Amino acid sequence: MGTGDEEYDYLFKVVLIGDSGVGKSNLLARFTRNEFNLESKSTIGVEFATRSIKVNKKMIKAQIWDTAGQERYRAITSAYYRGAVGALLVYDIAKQLTYQNVERWLSELRDHADQNIVIMLVGNKSDLRHLRAVPSDEARAFAEVNNLSFIETSALDSTNVETAFENILTEIHRKVSARQMDSMDGDEIDKVCMKPIRIDATTANTNDSAAFQIKQFCCNASA
Amino acid sequence: MILNLDIVEMGDHSQKYANDSDLKNSFWKKNIRNLPGRASPKKDSKSVSSSASTSFDDFQESVSDAWEVEVEEEILRIADVKISKRIVHSSANNVIGFDKASIEKIHKSKNYSNSDLKGESSSQTDKNKNIENGLNLSEADSNKLSKFQTLLESNLLNLEDLKALSWSGVPVEVRPMAWRLLAGYLPVSSERRQQTLERKRIDYANLVKQYYDTDKDEVYKDTYRQIHIDIPRMSTALFQQTIVQEMFERILFIWAIRHPASGYVQGMNDLVTPFYIVFLQEYLPIGTNIENLDVNSISKENRNSLEADSFWCLSKFLDGIQDNYIFAQLGIQYKVNQLKELIQRIDGTLHEHLMKHGIDYLQFSFRWMNNLLTRELPLKCSIRLWDTYLAESDCFATFQLYVCAAFLLHWRQELLEEKDFQGLMIMLQNLQTQNWTDTDISLLVAEAYRLKFTFADAPNHLTTKR
């Protein structure tokens, strides 16, 4: 599972959001490069990485945008929500405040992201067992109420990092496939799936350029 | 549809852009003779203002030829003052004061002669060459140093002279004092300097007492929390020392409180670092390796001075670019658009290439602007770059745009070889500068200067040559 130029069936844009210092950049580094850095510098603006994995026999290329956590960057980072089909909303299981702020991040997504975006709540730093401040059950219940999937990860010891990304990509794939089926007899498709088509024509435009692309659209729909 | 939008936006910015360069122009025109890399200017500065009223059609017409001609050729053609890349580089090097060979020696040498002990570069591979050229180097180096010393010792310092001399790099021996003066922290009158220094250091100590040592207001707790999260994440060993982290936290916290319109913004910690390192070196023998330095080994009094000086210089430095850090970071967004327009004019091929692959300038240049390239360059190179920034005084915000443009163009070939969005983004986020030396920075700023001269001081170049 390299990150090279291999062929892929789907290209999904996913954003990583959440408070500063919860470990977004390290989750990304672990997933895309199998690296972890205890003193990774704060992210300025946005950073980009990618990796392709196989889901349901389809090659999926995940284009992941890591965002700065500080509120001041919201205006810049929210531009990157456009066209995203998935979001990992990360908090730190050892810092209650980062969990409390999950609500605010959700409303950010409501304001700026596509309404069909798949959101996964991620409690990171699960290795810090002795410092846990957010009970798993509480977070899981919150996720259920808000229709989010939920997982706890540790970028440090790799626990569940792979699974988290696999799960969200699978879910996105499922949603997209279902929508493609729907579209056979409706125009529902315009809302989400047709977005990528615009890309080719608008490469000169800015923020949504790397949005959400489905290759071989017709073939997939009938597959 | 989208294309139309883009054009309108471009026209709109070109208008602002022209106005902007018009305003800033005065600074440049005043100092023309003093600055390195400057070919004899022949342009009528009046022509600048007329571009502000140029209609969009004119603008479009004037730049449309950029798409047809090879870039290098185009630049040579429009630059009727005949500054080619090569000439700028060589003349920049000459103005720096020495022949190119000796410059390289300065940066690559470490411990040969007395004046070699600059500690600016860690490369020790060129020792033999250094010995050959050692004499030249000493002469050239001490020549520049003595020019600085003469200036700094004069009763009433001529700040313009200091800027002119500093633009091409400040010797490590005099850098702390030169930076204090360039930043406007200390007065030009030498007899008032010591007094001011003492007073400012006391002022800072009082600010610490007033804002930091007392209970922090609820509003400021978020600020403190953010700073407290970011500082320990600064990588090198030096910054893993609690004592250093506390100094940075105080500097940034007090700055944030005193600048409520912007407050602390992630990345500002990187802007403290060059000041901190330069002032820290003042208390150490020249050439000391600071990587493994125990800052506790410096006396408390000196540590306090170091912290206060870093604070005040940072404050002066950020004054000119505060709009970078206000809500929505409008200053940066504006500059990113300027960068886009500039590259479009200078290097249509590269611009098209980036556009074709869906690269948005904001995606890579936001960090360049927000952190003034500190994240893209080795620390010693940032320090050298700041010699030039500080010598640019109030205009460095403008100049930084050209530095970013020159920096992007430096990677032109490699970027053109990347054939997809992913390859381009990954490359742009990790530009390989780890082996850069001061010489690379000298060339970078010389190139930036050439671009500024060609495109900002004379935005009508393209029109008038038609």
Task: Write a structural description.
- The complex is a heterodimer of chains A (223) and B (466).
- The two termini of chain A are 24 Å apart.
- Chain A has nine helices and seven strands; from the N terminus they run E-H-E-E-H-E-H-H-E-H-E-H-H-H-E-H.
- Chain A has 223 residues and is α/β, with parallel strands linked by helices.
- Chain A has a single domain (10-178), classed as P-loop containing nucleotide triphosphate hydrolases (Rossmann fold).
- In chain A, strands 1, 2, 3, 4, 5, 6 and 7 form a seven-stranded mixed beta sheet that branches.
- In chain A, helix 5 (136-145) links the parallel strand 5 and strand 6.
- Residues 186-223 of chain A have low confidence and may be disordered.
- Helix content of chain A is 35%, strand content 22%.
- Chain A is globular.
- Among the domains of chain B are: 191-319; 330-457, Cyclin A, domain 1 (Orthogonal Bundle), CATH 1.10.472.
- In chain B, helix 1 runs antiparallel to helix 2 (46-52).
- Helix content of chain B is 66%, strand content 0%.
- Residues 1-54, 64-83, 97-132 and 459-466 of chain B have low confidence and may be disordered.
- Chain B has 466 residues and is mainly alpha-helical.
- The two termini of chain B are 30 Å apart.
- The chains are: A alpha/beta (223), B mainly alpha (466).
- The interface between A and B is large, with 35 and 42 residues.
- Chain B: This is Rab-GTPase-TBC domain.
- Chain B: It holds the Pfam family RabGAP-TBC.
